[in-house]
Amino acid sequence: MESLKITLFALFCLIVNIPLGRWRGKYKRFSMPWIAIVHASVPVIIALRLWFDVNNFFIPLFIALAVLGQYLGNKTVKIHDKR
């Protein structure tokens, strides 16, 4: 049961950040909206991690998946803009 909870939470971290990455790609790098969008999912992820009592050991995995989600979302914007 614990591994299912961690897997679902990891997928959540990835999936939530894809639309944020798309949105982030429309702003100038390091502008205030860009910074706000990059950090928008952090409070939600922290709250859910505490709520579901997920072990701190997995925090680097969740951070990596959030960054990957932002990256993938931003790539979709760049691909769409080239067309």
Features:
mainly alpha, 0% strand, 83 residues, 4 helices
Q: Brief overview, please?
A:
The protein contains four helices and no strands.
Descriptive notes:
The protein is mostly helical and 83 residues long. It has one domain (2-82). It is built from 4 helices and no strands. The protein has helices spanning 2-24, 32-39, 42-51, 59-82. Helix 1 (2-24) packs antiparallel against helix 2 and helix 1 packs parallel to helix 4. The radius of gyration is 14 Å and the shape is elongated. The termini are far apart. The model has no long low-confidence stretch (mean pLDDT 92).
Rg (CA only): 14 Å
Please trace the helix and strand order, writing H or E for each element: HHHH
**N-to-C span:** 44 Å
**Please, how many helices?**
4
Average per-residue pLDDT, rounded, comes to: 92
- State the major sheet: none
Uncertain parts: none
Topology, element by element:
Elements: H1 2-24, H2 32-39, H3 42-51, H4 59-82
Helix pairs in contact: 1-2, 1-4
